[in-house]
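Researcher: Re-running this chain for the archive, since the previous output was lost when a drive failed. Same request as before.
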Amino acid sequence: MSAVRCILLLLLIVRVLPAGERPNIVLILADDFGYGDAGCYNARARVATPHIDRIAQQGLRFTDAHSPATVCTPTRYGLLTGQMPFRVPRGGTVFTGAGGPSLISPGRTTLASLLRQHGYATWAVGKWHLGLTFQDAAGQPIHDGRPEAIPRIDFSRPVEGGPLAHGFDRFFGTACCPTTDWLYAFIDGDRIPVPPTMPLDKSGLPRHPYANDCRAGMIAADFPMQSVDQVFLERSRQLLEQHLDEHPDQPFFLYHSTQAVHLPSFASSRFQGQSGAGPHGDFLLELDDIVGQLTGILERRGVLDRTLFIFTSDNGPETSTVVSMRTDHRHDGAAPWRGMKRDNWEGGHRVPLLVRWPGVVAAATETDQLASLTDVLATVADIVGEPYPSDTRDDSFSLLPVLKGEAEAPIRPYLVTQAFRGAQTLAIRRGSWKYIAHAGSGGNNYQQPPLQQFALPETVTGAQEQLYNLASDPGETTNLIEEQTELAAELRALLAQVAGRNR
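Model: Regenerated structure tokens:
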């Protein structure tokens, strides 16, 4: 055997760990599920979440974890690539309809591509929302997120730039928000088998304060507006069962991205009226059941304890949901933080993060380590022994020492978040200090109803920056930008340095 072949064989052995050392990985990404929506984070939550709470009881609960952005698309980019979305063109975009192309550039390492290199079967089920390329009858890309673009799509042509182009072996789901963004149809692989050919008839859909984000559009004959998450759940069940029947020794990665609990709150029939907290409470109940169903499948098949199970959310709770749930049911999905989805205050991006991994993660533990969803990539790379991409190293830090209970010092030297307006609305954390490089929330307008009732008085009139000490002021009520000028200058410079690094 030649020296070159010996080296290649050695590299292959190093890269592909024995199956027993490679955990299965299930990552559930909920949508608009706030820090205060789960019982294990909020003792006053009005909806029981026993299955989510069970993950906390059997694993590790992060109390200071954050989505990289305060809205859907940018967070999903950060989660899958380990890179902050503001670093790439259109990194503040929220895709709709036939919008695209993919935010993930060709060839960029993702969680799926990294794990597939290490012998994993990789599947994505649910909401994609990272941009796709649909084509018209002449084969030209559309890249138009308006509803008027839907009839231009030639559904006989493959959909490009989706999960299959970014490391996933299988995909079943939707282009954007499943029951919001006017293209109501399922993508299977890189095709839409049943195209949306009919205008959506909303006359038979529920009408309540949590149903107002369902936009007019085109719908496929097989698209059930009130049970989309059950379709996603069934597809994940099929993938798991088939794989465990046919390839029981091959590790798998399932990325299950739910519709729940993004508006409109259309819970499936089995959950309607069951929560005691209205339509959105029913939707929260359904999300919790989805977690229980997926863990139940793994437990029944005897692989749950060989699985790294992660539950988290893409950002804080939706504004209209928070307003109505606070008023109608005394439930606060943003509790105990200021702000909500789109905002750079904590309620916009501090999210639940639960990790279960028996034999590695101690049960019923919690950590106040600062963490971002971008850290999932570096952590998974560390687990499989893969050097993670150098262009993520300002943004993705391995939390494996935290999972093992071995971290004696903070893993992250800082954390950057971006609000609704992307690179124009950045903030940075260092220890307990948080510097926000803009005025206001960076997202929602608190000068107008219905959010006006939640506006706090400005402690520094006309300030274009904010500085808070979360240790003494977790509610971000007192802007210290004029009292701590040297510290503010340090954090301003650090943010400029981190954000300005060429990636």
